[in-house]
Design goal:
2 copies of one chain form a homodimer.
Chain A lengths: L3 E11 L7 H6 L4 E6 L3 H4 L2 H8 L4 E5 L8 H14 L3 E6 L1 H13 L7 H5 L10 E5 L11 E6 L4 E6 L7 E4 L9 H19 L7 H23 L4 H13 L15 H12 L3 H16 L5 H12 L6 H18 L16 H10 L13 H11 L1
Parallel strand pairs in A: 1-8, 2-3, 2-4, 4-5, 5-8
Antiparallel strand pairs in A: 6-7
Chain lengths: 386, 386
């Protein structure tokens, strides 16, 4: 088990009606609030009104229109508002994209130069505004971690900024806020949660047994409830289990004692950075192909364990069980209505070479991944995804 | 899934050699330190020297001789030192007893009256000195939670004080510090961890699936590694997995979404409060008998799930699987060298009536437990333990 540090300062308020604590808790951070949200669905489903009721008495500035794969341009806008209006705290109402943009804005607001500098060199992040979250999509775990992924459209880069200063101070997670999610977002969220845990689970270190069994528990949760919310969007048990799975899935708990670089996310980030694809969709296409690509004598026992523990595969031979597991992953994504090829989402091979180079350049794929990959490997994976 | 709040401020530094951060981190709290430890085993195994090397430059006051089932008298002594010497922070070097005593001292040091007042009325805890921990026994999870159990010998009461102010600020968990533990303490620790998770797992709420599967993961970890450290005390993989299991087992993660009162601990606390029995030994005697006592049509499916998931029992019929699970628990405790009757540890029936009354009076057994118990139930459990 590798050495690790573990400290998560985020204050989670989980459950129906928890929005009622917002006024008091947000008050601790100040009066001048930047409210950040997406395309306006929160105005249709009533969440905006519930939030505004809590913000009575605050000076509220709004930054709406945060898109999936949030853009540097938006961050620059938010940073400018914070500086001009002397904002005290940021309230993100949304999912991973809104929270990630808010985190980057929170850091950018306290930095004199361009916010992209902070992504390229996180040591430049010296302070950040406090961030509060009202979660409306469960997927990225951003509500209880210190990372944010931002896309720079000028350079076609989708990169992460990550420092303890970016932990949200408060995250309100009400599972009923997920009831009105479009099915595609529910599905992509489940894929993302599963993928996060798989990235942490498929690593060279086998000695962190406890972390592995906890990971298996979270993955079983996604496999159990992911399809239920597709059929029954207002199922509280399913929504609440998935919502907490998204948080626990990427709040550091499932990494401790393990470590190493991720495999599928860095490849997907390049694709969705170039094509503005929904992150979960990209993961659904790439993950089974990556599994097939790296399956071999050195990896088959962990793949077999994954198949048995997460999908209940009952086969003694490791290689057979491993292959059965990959099949189950593919079936699970299909059940959620995910596409399984890049062609289906309108992506051809024209940028494969560039993207393969970028994936290697911007990640630990070739140095610290579960199975080390080079550009040719990534090219092969892309081709198999066509 | 029940609503919950989740915030754990403790900074965990886990792994071999992590003691090296103590000097710097402790320095944030001040210069005047009360060093609290037990019977002196840390002087034989070298941990005391490693700690003192880090404390070079601090003003160190010592309170040694903390016993299992830590006593109010010791807390009073510690509180007096803190007040007389203007102590800035408490450094607990030990296991649950030492940490619990330190927590109570930390609160008592900031309170004008007798520290027992704080146990009887936790609203009187308004502040507490910062607490740092160097963990040398893994069992209670006290290194990352806000509870402390203290015994008042005058009244034969063993009660808990629990408030967020008592979270340790820092806990250093080095699995090699467990290498020299006497086998009996290693065994009792494993029983304690398993019991904590069982208390949280056996609860009426079945909807917190994710919490249940995480609990099963931690229990599997104990069942896998508990016996290994008995055979091979310097097995790093086993020690590190158990050490983190003890922390995760009682840091609130396995309670979220569930709740309800515990069953076996309140009964055991009365026994060890009266007889100064090792807590883990009392739990090992009581747990299987409690399981038999509450097994019935309403509980058999959860008991069967426990048997299948934690002990790998492969039986279709729930009642048969449940009974097989209880047998496995008993075998597991025997494998760790635990006694299985009260007679073996010199306890007869003379205080059964008093203890049964106390167990009911001081707990939620009759009101909020998995299966509600009255005095007669507890009497019956005691008799079956003879």
């Amino acid at each position: 088990m590798n050495n690790f540090d573990f400290k998560i300062p985020t204050d989670i308020r989980f459950g129906k009606g928890k929005i009622s604590c917002l006024k008091e808790e947000l008050g601790h951070f100040g009066k001048r609030i930047l409210l950040v949200y997406g395309g306006g669905s929160i105005k249709k489903n009533g969440i905006y009104d519930e939030v505004m009721q809590q913000l009575d008495g605050f000076d509220v500035y709004e930054l709406s229109g945060i898109t999936p794969n949030p853009k540097l341009e938006t961050v620059r806008k938010g940073t400018a508002i914070c500086k001009e209006q002397n904002i005290d705290a940021i309230l993100a109402v949304g999912g991973g994209s809104t929270i990630d943009a808010s985190k980057h804005i929170a850091a950018g607001a306290c930095y004199a130069g361009d916010p992209w500098d902070l992504v390229l060199d996180r040591s430049k992040v010296k302070e950040a505004l406090p961030i509060a979250v009202v979660l409306t999509i469960c997927a990225t775990g951003s509500e209880m971690n210190s990372g944010a992924v931002i896309t720079n459209e000028e350079t076609c880069e989708k990169l992460e900024i990550n420092t303890p200063l970016l932990y949200p101070k408060l995250s309100i997670c009400d599972p009923t806020y997920l009831y009105s999610l479009p099915p595609k977002q529910s599905a992509a969220g489940s894929v993302d949660i599963l993928s996060h845990v798989m990235e942490q689970y498929f690593q060279p270190n086998d000695e962190a047994f406890i972390t592995d069994v906890l990971s298996e528990g979270v993955m079983k949760t996604v496999v159990k409830y992911g399809p239920i919310v597709m059929e029954d969007p207002k199922n509280y048990e399913a929504r609440s289990n998935l919502m907490w799975a998204s948080t626990v899935g990427l709040n550091h708990l499932l990494t401790v004692g393990k470590g190493g670089a991720w495999s599928v996310h860095p490849i997907e980030h390049v694709v969705s950075g170039c094509y503005d694809l929904t992150h979960g969709v990209g993961l659904a296409i790439l993950t089974p192909v990556w599994m097939e690509h790296v399956l071999g004598d050195g990896t088959k026992s962990r793949f077999a364990r994954f198949a048995r523990e997460v999908f209940g595969v009952k086969v003694d031979d490791d290689m057979t069980a491993a292959k059965e597991g990959i099949k189950k992953v593919r079936e699970f994504f299909l059940l959620l209505g995910m596409p399984s090829t890049l062609s289906e989402v309108g992506i051809d091979d024209s940028k494969f070479e560039f993207m393969a180079k970028e994936a290697i350049r911007t990640s630990g794929l070739s140095t610290r991944a579960y199975v080390k990959l080079d550009e040719n490997d990534v090219m092969e994976i892309f081709k198999k995804c066509l």
